Structure formats: C-alpha cells, structure tokens
Amino acid sequence: MAEGSIHKICTCRDLNGKKLGTRCPQLRRAGGNWNSHHGKWGYQLELPKRTDGTRRSPLRRHTFDGRDDAARDRSQAIALLALAGDDTALATEIADLLQQVKAGAPMPDRDTITKRVNAGLPASVDMTVGEYLRQWLESRRRIEPSTKRAYDCQIRVHLIPHLGAVPLVKLRVEHISAMFTAITDRNTAIEIARHSEDPQIRATVRGVRTTGPATMQRIRAVLRKALNDAMARSNNRLIGFNPAKHVELPSGKQPKPRVWTAKAVARWRETGEKPSPVMVWTPEQAGIFLDYAQDHDIALYPVFVGIMHRGMRRGEALGLRDTTVDLDDALVTVDLQRTTVGYEAVDKKVKSESGNRTFALDSFTAAAWRAYLARRARWRLVSGSKWPDTGFFFVQPNGEKWHPDTVSKRFDSLVRDAGLPPVRLHDLRHCAATYLKASGADLTDVKELLGHSTITITSDTYTSVIVELEVERDKAEAAAALVPRRPRAA
User: Fold this and answer.
1) Which of 53, 56, 331, 430 lies at 20 to 30 Å from 250 by C-alpha?
2) pLDDT recorded at residue 478
3) What's the whole-number average pLDDT of the chain?
4) 340-350 pLDDT tens trace
5) What is the pLDDT of residues 229-251, one digit of tens each?
6) Could you give the C-alpha distances from 343 to 140, 199, 346, 403, 424, in angstroms and in order?
7) Is the pLDDT of residue 473 over 70?
C-alpha cells in the first residue's frame, strides 16, 4: 500500500490568481528552513478504485500545524485502509468513508470501525440501537420461545420506537431516561382520556393498556442485557459503557392481594373499581364459585379445585400427567407446565428447582379428582379408538389436552355468570395461599406449596392480606377477650 507524501502548502496566489500551493516562496525562511508562521502541513494518499474500476481522486488533507500531526493523521488513514486486506468491497467502503471526513475533523476511530466490520455492518455506517437490538435478538438461540417473544415485544413496542435511531456508540443515560419519561407521559395521557367526560375521547383509549412499573423494569432489563452483550469480548466490545445500568426507575414490585370484603364488593358493584389488580375471594365466595363450576362446567371443575386448594399455577395444573398424580398416597409432583407462546400451546419443564416440587393433596381435592378419573374413563369409553393417549391427567372430553387460554376464558365466564366479584384464574393461587396461612400454616409451608424461590416473595405477598379475612378478626377478638378489664358504668 502506498504511503503517500507529506508536504507543506498555503493558499497564496500568483498575479493571475492561481494558487501557489507548495511553490509559495514564503513557506521557507531565507536559510531554507520551514517557516512555522506560514502555510499548513498536509498529505496526499492514493485510494482504492471505485466499485466500477475507475480511479478516484487521492485523499488530500492540509489542515495541520505540524509535520508530525500530518504524519499521524496519514498513519490513521493507512491503518483504516489496511483493515480491508484483500477484500476489495470493504476497501471501497473504507475509501468512501475517508473521503466523507470533513476538513479539520478527526479520522474515524480504527477500533470502532473494526468492531463495526466484524459485526457485519458497513464500515461507513454507524450501527444504530435498533439495528443492534434486532441482530442481538436473532442471535439469542438458547432461550425459551416465550422468553424470546417477550424480548421481541419490549424491543418492538418500546425500545426501537424511542431509541432505535440513536447510534449504539452514542447511547447515553439521558436517552434512556427520556424514553421512560415519554412512557410515563403516555400513561398519564391514557388515564386522563379514560376519565374524560367526552365518550369519544374515552373511546380512543378503550382497550389501551398503560405501562406499569414492573413492565418498565422488564424493558430496562432487556436493554441492559443486550448492552452487556455488546460489551462482551465475544461481541468485539462494540461499546465500553452500559448506560442502562444507571437509569433509576420506580419499584417494579407486584401489587399485594386484597380480599373482596363486603364493603369492597359493594363499591365494585357501584363503581366497577377494584381495590387492587390482584384480588382474593373470601372462603364463602370461593365456595360459591366451586359449587357453580361443578354445576355448569364439570369438565374443568376438578382443575379449578386443584388450583383453589393446592395453589398450582394454571400451566402446572394442565401439565400434570397420570405418572405424576398418585391418588392412593395423595401426592402430586409438579415438573412440567403447559403454557403458550403467542397462542400456540407448548409443554416445557418448570422454570426453577423451587417450582419442581411434590406436595400432598387434601381429602377434598383427592375425592374430586377420583370422581374426575371415573368420568374420564367414561369419556374414553365413548370415544373408543379415537381417544388420544396423551398421558396428561387433565384432558378434554375428547381426550385432547387443554389449551391454557381456553381454560382462562371459561373461568372468566363462570365468574361473570355466577355474579361474583372478578378475580383472575391465577388469583385462585393467591386464595389457596391466603387460606393456608389463615388456617395456621407458617410462611415456610406456603412457600413450599407455591414453589416460591425465596420466602421473601411469600412474605411480601401474603403477610398483609390475611388480616382482611373474617377468621383473622375472630382471632383478634379472642385475643382481646383474654385481657381482663374492670367493668365501668355506662
């Protein structure tokens, strides 16, 4: 590769107006030494040909005060061209990049261009946050499909619209903070529209969800992980700093369950408002639901019984197999869950060691499940050879496995038709934990039954909700009665 030439030049002109360039007599002093007060140092460097084979003009830069400055800049240009090796297409890209550098501006950083090239991007284009996030998500091969889908949602809905156009190397804490400020402002606008007196304005946000603190935490977590990977040696260290680590957000703790007390139910019937996103039925309300489900959806009734009394997640109940349910010894092992990716139902192992657990069945649940097995045997007899042998414990009357979303929709319909205050199917799990704690079990018992990873989760969720149950008021009354008091005149 040609090293080019270094020289001194000025902008003086002769009598005809033509630039003297290197011929100006003022460039040197009388003794032949360079005149440090006149002209600028520069260099000329030949560049690779264009893609069509034609020669391009040499790279000329003449803005340097000293010869050493010009030499260093020329060395940087040569080093950038050397990145191409025998790759003529890349050499052309780098030559284009060099010719785009404005006079007086520094040369592109060689390490940055190296990372860009190694990442498969054009040498002359900055990788944006959006481009990197798409590439990063596509490279994530060893994650669950549901996790990848969740990442895709955060990237597509939030990160790319707000940060996608920002060059990756220029992403700062201020950019990310501005994104969350915009999300918060959007939440405020949605709430204002929901409470507008104009029905047309309310209609504009019907079905539109706000982005809560927990979701914001997940958005930042996805970005933080992606940027951590961008800093890794295996990814050519595309960046040297992770701004997502330094953004402060409100706590993403889940809301604590509340009980549907008589006062809460009355207010809900009047206004439609729920005291908390997570609600728990009283034991009386739970009994009304199970009675109604037994009368109106006998196929799913045993599933609801299991969740209500033993606190299984929806996917864990639907993931039980005949080999993991032992009604003789009243034991159940949870090691598989039936969940969804998009709308597709999939079966996969439970996420954690704490979720992989064995627990005892109460006599009521065991009796309900024995009755279900007898009913299932009759279904199988009717289906004959068409009955699919899935091995799953809970199946539809035709023998097929349940779709998780179908179970949730039928649960919601039963709650509505029974005239009960609304809870989610997942809230039956909270009911089970609340009743167990109120009946005298300690938090360790609740933790083991629910499959929580730490007792902190159990404590944070359930230590306050049980005080709203009637049984707790009875305990408080009994405790107060133990304190003797002197009678007083009315």
Assistant:
1) 430
2) 63
3) 85
4) 877 788 898 87
5) 988 856 557 788 899 999 988 77
6) 21, 33, 9, 9, 19
7) no
Element (H, E) at 344: strand 344-349
Residue holding tokens 């959006």? 130
Indicate the angle between helix axes 427-438 and 443-450, nearest 10 degrees.
150
375: three-class secondary structure by DSSP = helix
The DSSP code for 195 is: T
Angle formed by the axes of helices 145-154 and 213-230, nearest 10°: 100
Task: Give phi and psi for 295, each to the nearest 5.
Answer: -80, -25
Residues facing residue 348 across a β-bridge: 337
- Rounded CA-CA distance 230/223 in Å is 10
Six-digit token string for 86? 């025998």
Rg of the chain over all Cα atoms, to the nearest angstrom:
35
| Spatial separation of the C-alpha atoms in residues 129 and 251, rounded to whole Å | 26
Q: Name the strand (E) or helix (H) holding 33.
A: none
| Longest CA pairwise span in the chain (Å) | 123
Non-local (6+) Cβ contacts of 212 within 8 A are: 252
* Stretch (H or E) spanning 89: helix 88-100
Buried-exposed string 77-114: b where 16+ CB fall within 10 A, e elsewhere: beebbebbeeeeebbbbbbbbbeeeeeeeebbeeeebb
Cβ-based neighbour number of residue 207 at 10 Å: 5
Instruction: Count other Cβ atoms within 10 Å, centred on residue 428.
Output: 29
Q: How far apart are the first and last CA of the chain?
A: 109
Which residues, 6+ apart, have CB-to-CB distance to 293 below 8 Å? Answer: 300, 301, 304, 414
Length of the chain: 490
Asked if 428 and 304 count as a contact pair (C-beta separation under 8 A), the reply is yes
Determine the Cα–Cα distance for residues 99 and 58; give it in Å rounded to an integer: 9
Which of the four pLDDT bands, split at 50, 70 and 90, describes residue 124?
A: low
Whether 409 contacts 297, CB under 8 Å:
no
The residues facing 45 across adjacent strands are: 59
How far lies 439's CA from each of 100, 211, 446, 462, 475, in Å?
Answer: 75, 37, 11, 13, 11
Instruction: Dump pLDDT digits (tens) for 31-62.
Output: 888 888 898 898 999 998 887 788 888 998 98
